[in-house]
Specification:
It is a single chain. 37% of the residues lie in helices and 31% in strands. The chain folds into two domains: 134 residues, Roll (PH-domain like); 138 residues, Roll (PH-domain like), CATH 2.30.29. A hairpin with a 3-residue loop joins strand 3 and strand 4. The protein has 304 residues and is α+β, with helices and mostly antiparallel strands. The protein has six helices and 14 strands. Helix 1 runs antiparallel to helix 2 and helix 4 runs antiparallel to helix 5.
Length: 304
């Protein structure tokens, strides 16, 4: 068993903090060189620093060990000090001026203190849940994190409907657009006429193809595993062992005025995989649903 798991911030959170720090540093430098906009700069610097503070405030340093948990750099609690652990909970908080409700892991101590780790801020929360479920709830110290499948399903693979020639050409179009974008950028640097139009066209093409790729995931299966594949990135393949899958959902996720259809795979070790299937043709989507229904795994189509 891995003896220590430490909560790790998501990459996007670190990027936001570093980005805000660089912006605030640049604004401070600008503050001493542009006296005519001093008031605006001071207000904007205050807002950036305020945003950094609130983002940093939501981060929870939590390290779980075989015999104790650790919060901050010095505070330790033995498992005897823990009253309860709620693996899936919700917490209310304010981000800047907006009230938010976020999924989280909650550890309640005997003294009433609560340690909350939010989903949106922790990249490896599934590992913390898996560790604490086994160590505290099940009192099991013989588990490990070796979930990598060691099988090959190249034979007897249940495939979806055939991929059209136009779809097969998408990776080559993406490579061509990237090459054009790079070469036209170099041409623009060398002051070659009309290079900017090639930059705009190729950049737009790359952007559209990346959006299509993000929405064109599908599955293939065999008697041992599921393979998550992508219509644009042919080499991308995520194998998931069937005996490690808890249940699967096909869900319509609303965001603002729009929505997206996602295939959500819940693993027994609390990790969740989400794949958008918005750009799949109806035939391929129905074939995928048919495959999922044949597997010995609980599958729910929750699109309504």
């Amino acid at each position: 068993m891995s003896k220590t798991i430490t909560a790790r911030p998501k990459s996007i959170i670190l990027f936001i903090l570093i980005f805000c720090f660089i912006i605030s540093l640049g604004l401070i430098i600008l503050l001493y060189t542009k006296n005519e906009i001093v008031v605006f700069l001071r207000l904007f610097i205050a807002f950036v620093v305020f945003s950094m503070f609130y983002t940093f405030k939501q981060l929870t340093y939590l390290s779980v060990h075989t015999n104790y948990i650790k919060t901050g750099f010095f505070t330790k609690y033995k498992y005897q000090d823990i009253a309860s652990i709620t693996l899936y909970d919700h917490t209310k908080y304010r981000f800047l001026f907006f009230p938010m409700v976020e999924a989280c892991l909650t550890i309640t101590l005997n003294n009433g203190k609560k340690i909350v780790v939010q989903d949106n801020y922790c990249a490896n929360l599934w590992k913390l849940r898996w560790f604490l479920e086994n160590r505290f709830i099940k009192n099991n110290t013989a588990f490990n994190f070796n979930f990598k499948p060691n099988f090959d399903c190249n034979t007897n693979l249940n495939t979806t409907s055939p991929i059209t020639l136009v779809t097969k050409a998408l990776p080559f179009i993406l490579v061509l657009a990237l090459v054009t974008l790079i070469s036209s950028s170099l041409a623009a640097y060398c002051n070659i006429d009309h290079a900017e139009w090639f930059i705009i066209t190729s950049a737009l093409c790359v952007f559209i193809l990346l959006i299509i790729a993000a929405r064109s995931n599908y599955i293939e299966s065999c008697d041992k595993a599921l393979y998550i594949k992508n219509l644009v990135f042919k080499k991308q393949k995520t194998p998931l062992a069937l005996d490690q899958i808890n249940h699967i959902e096909l869900k319509l996720i609303s965001h603002g005025k729009g929505s997206t259809t996602q295939l959500i795979i819940h693993m027994v070790y609390h990790k969740v995989y989400r794949f958008s299937v918005d750009d799949l043709k109806q035939e391929r989507l129905q074939n995928m649903i048919s495959q999922l229904n044949k597997l010995n795994i609980r599958f729910q189509d929750l699109r309504g």
